[in-house]
């Protein structure tokens, strides 16, 4: 609910449990007054204190009032060059070379429904949303900034974006344009900053540190959101935990360079900004042109990280994923990559699919190596024609053989890349990113196609369309296996090369949107060397993403744990793979690998023909169990019961149905030890007034007892054992 106090120019955004407020003050500066637990209302600007602070200048219009400074005032969208020395949201370069911007309030509008951002991913919905647009202007620069706010009250979700328009008669350049600026004032709370960091094959590892004086930031300049830092951060009270304390999660719906920065100021106030990274960003706006920032989404929780996560999960599932199978179970799949890599034939693929079909697996995905002359990763990217040596008769011959087994067929592609040893590169070398007079930098022996150029996208899409039209294909795995370097486009003049990174992302979104339009029933899974582009922006186009190239079950406990703070289980690509694991060399039981993969989209990454009889039986029971429990797993509320980064004896998590009448508890033990202690696991999310039975056990137990007393842990024999409890109310 959005409440406007027109007289005092106060804008209050209420959600189910929180309140967000801003005000146009006496100098027409849009100040931020409050974000936190829901309050009854009123003008909270009385919380802002004013005093003369040395070396904090006074803006135009303040006259002789030395207590008023942009450097000490909490603002809704910060600028630079006119007295605020903290993190800027907007940095302009005018034609005269000045880098000044002074935004003042000029108007607002209120609408039912959710704003949209053409060409960019955004949360969507109908009358359950409200939109507030607040307009700020710089009269001297003739720039208008429209701040957009979407409110989804039921999910405690507030979204933000900015539309920046050149209202003048001369060009100007954007040097920085953040999506979110959030100021805290009063200095009464010490905040921690939580970020999710890592590397290829070990993504989204949680890091928590107190804010210290100065600026702390994470981001990516790799052209993608990256394995290394995720565009989701949390700012929280120092004592906040899984089920208590105030925390604010902020996610950027963007798949390119980003920066999340937090600053503790001289007055012990804090500012958080989130948006496109200013690294090599420079966007020219001609008169009348507008630039729209990516959307940022915020959830404030007064009951810790768990409730924040569950609100994000619900909002993403209901208002971001455009899933062709929405409300239906995704098929259990098998992918041939770890079984064969590049070395396969049609008969070998059918053999792998045949073994999987007998176990109830429903989708076969053919990975890299099916096109051009692709026997390794040195050639053929860009040549999207079937390799007749491996697949005689092409997909029109192979796919019916898979369909005869009762399975659907899916395919791997990497459309954004090109090999130097390819017909496409030989014909169009200028289509790859690269500056004149320089040799190009290789990554995984490949170059990046310039997706900022429409003719490049149209050619690649046309080739992919021929493939998709040639057979009954129900699934596409869209991969991207290197970072961007040599970022220079032959299609842009020198003064506009700072636009290439962002135009690349817009081109990617444009192509994915076309794929959605032309093939609305194809399920698309995103991938970038695993989790290198696992962000809310990609989820708008690819409703599931390969969580990590690391399929080791024990490492996955940590990877999936960090991922769960923002992203729902239903989006996490997770498979059972062979042991010893290809990434770690670790051997874990088949049961354990299944339990971990079941908290994801679930599938297999192995040749099931090589399994023992016992492993085959286990896989068949896992598939059947997942099919039985898929709605609870994918649509239930997610509870992190333990932290896998702590040196505890086990990792546990739980999914609870929305009506709290059913739950699934999953536990994986760590390294075994002699004479282990007696332990009990406290459950969460149950109805304290109901009694629950545990499948396969006699008796029933009250919900409050299971949550406060717990469930006795069995004594594990051996490392990395797993078990599950399926609870249902009497």
Number of strands: 39
Structural class: alpha+beta
What is the share of helical residues? 10-25%
Q: What gap, in angstroms, lies between the N and C termini?
A: 38 Å
Anisotropy-based shape: globular
Q: Helix count?
A: 12
Largest sheet: 10 strands, antiparallel
Radius of gyration: 27 Å
pLDDT averaged over residues: 96
Proportion in β-strands:
25-35%
By oligomeric state, this entry counts as single chain
Point out poorly predicted stretches: none
Explain what this protein looks like in three dimensions.
By secondary structure, this protein is of the alpha+beta class. 18% of the residues lie in helices and 30% in strands. The chain has twelve helices and 39 strands. The strands form seven sheets. Strands 6, 7, 8, 9, 11, 12, 14, 15, 19 and 20 form a ten-stranded antiparallel sheet that branches. Strands 29-28-27-26-23-22-21-31-30 form a nine-stranded parallel sheet. Strands 5, 10, 13, 16, 17 and 18 form a six-stranded antiparallel sheet that branches. Strand 30 (575-577), helix 10 (590-598) and strand 31 (603-605) form a beta-alpha-beta unit. It is globular and about 85 Å long. The two termini are 38 Å apart. The model has no long low-confidence stretch (mean pLDDT 96).
């Amino acid at each position: 609910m959005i409440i406007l106090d027109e007289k005092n120019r106060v804008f209050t955004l209420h959600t189910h449990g929180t309140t967000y407020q801003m005000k146009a003050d006496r100098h027409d500066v849009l100040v931020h007054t409050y974000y936190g637990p829901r309050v009854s209302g009123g003008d909270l600007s009385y919380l802002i204190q004013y005093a003369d602070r040395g070396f904090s200048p006074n803006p135009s219009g303040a006259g002789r009032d030395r207590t008023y400074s942009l450097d000490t005032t909490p603002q809704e969208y910060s600028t630079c060059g006119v007295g605020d020395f903290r993190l800027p949201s907007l940095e302009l370069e005018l034609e005269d070379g000045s880098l000044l911007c002074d935004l003042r309030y000029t108007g607002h509008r209120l609408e039912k429904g959710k704003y949209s951002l053409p060409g960019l991913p955004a949360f969507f919905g109908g009358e359950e949303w409200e939109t507030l647009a607040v307009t700020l202007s710089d009269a001297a620069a003739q720039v208008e900034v429209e701040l957009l706010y979407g409110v989804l009250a039921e999910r405690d979700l507030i979204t933000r974006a900015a539309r920046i328009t050149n209202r003048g008669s001369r060009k100007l350049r954007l040097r920085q344009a953040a999506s979110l600026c959030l100021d805290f004032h009063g200095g009464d709370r010490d905040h921690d900053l939580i970020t999710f960091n890592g590397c290829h094959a070990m993504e989204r590892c949680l890091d928590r540190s107190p804010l210290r004086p100065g600026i702390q930031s994470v981001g990516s300049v790799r052209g993608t959101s990256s394995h290394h830092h995720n565009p989701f951060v949390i700012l929280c009270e120092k004592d906040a935990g899984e089920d208590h304390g105030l925390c604010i999660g902020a996610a950027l719906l963007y798949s390119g360079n980003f920066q999340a920065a937090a600053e503790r100021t001289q007055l012990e106030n804090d500012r958080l900004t989130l948006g496109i990274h200013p690294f090599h960003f420079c966007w020219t706006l001609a008169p009348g042109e507008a630039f729209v920032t990516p959307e940022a989404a915020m959830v404030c929780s007064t009951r810790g990280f768990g409730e924040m996560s569950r609100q994000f999960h619900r909002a993403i599932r209901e208002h971001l994923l455009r899933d062709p199978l929405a409300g239906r179970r995704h098929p259990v799949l098998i992918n041939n990559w770890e079984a064969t890599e590049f070395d396969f034939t049609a008969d070998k693929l059918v053999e792998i699919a045949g073994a999987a079909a007998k176990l109830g697996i429903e989708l076969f995905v053919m990975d890299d190596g099916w096109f051009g002359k692709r026997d390794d990763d040195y050639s053929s990217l860009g040549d999207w024609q079937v390799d007749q040596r491996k697949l005689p008769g092409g997909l029109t011959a192979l796919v019916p053989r898979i369909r005869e087994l009762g399975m659907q067929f899916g395919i791997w592609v990497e459309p954004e890349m090109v090999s130097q040893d390819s017909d496409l590169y030989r014909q169009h070398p200028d289509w790859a990113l690269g500056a004149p007079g320089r040799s190009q930098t290789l990554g995984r022996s490949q170059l990046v196609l310039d997706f900022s150029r429409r003719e490049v996208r149209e050619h690649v899409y046309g080739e992919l369309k021929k493939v998709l039209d040639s057979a009954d294909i129900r699934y596409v795995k869209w991969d991207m296996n290197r970072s961007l370097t040599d970022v220079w486009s032959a299609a842009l003049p020198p003064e506009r090369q700072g636009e290439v990174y962002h135009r690349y992302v817009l081109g990617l979104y444009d192509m994915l949107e076309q794929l959605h339009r032309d093939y609305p029933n194809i399920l698309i899974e995103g991938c970038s060397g695993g989790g290198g582009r696992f962000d809310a922006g990609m989820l708008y186009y690819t409703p599931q993403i390969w969580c990590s190239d690391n399929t080791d079950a024990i490492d996955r406990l940590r990877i999936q744990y960090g991922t769960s703070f923002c992203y729902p289980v239903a989006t996490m690509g997770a498979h059972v793979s062979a042991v010893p694991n290809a990434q770690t060399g670790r051997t874990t039981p088949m049961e354990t690998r299944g339990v971990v993969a079941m908290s994801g989209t679930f599938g297999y990454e192995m040749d099931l023909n090589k399994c023992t009889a016992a492993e085959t039986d286990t896989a068949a029971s896992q598939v059947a169990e997942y099919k039985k429990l898929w709605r609870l797993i994918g649509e239930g509320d997610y509870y992190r019961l333990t932290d896998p980064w702590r040196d505890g004896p086990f990792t546990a998590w739980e999914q609870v149905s929305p009506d709290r009448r059913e739950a699934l508890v999953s536990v994986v033990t760590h390294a075994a030890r002699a004479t282990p202690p007696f332990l009990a696991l406290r459950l969460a999310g149950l109805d304290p007034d109901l009694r629950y039975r545990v499948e396969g056990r006699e008796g029933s137990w009250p919900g409050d007892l299971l949550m406060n007393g717990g469930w006795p842990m069995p004594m594990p024999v051996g490392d990395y054992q797993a078990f599950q409890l399926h609870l249902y109310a009497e």
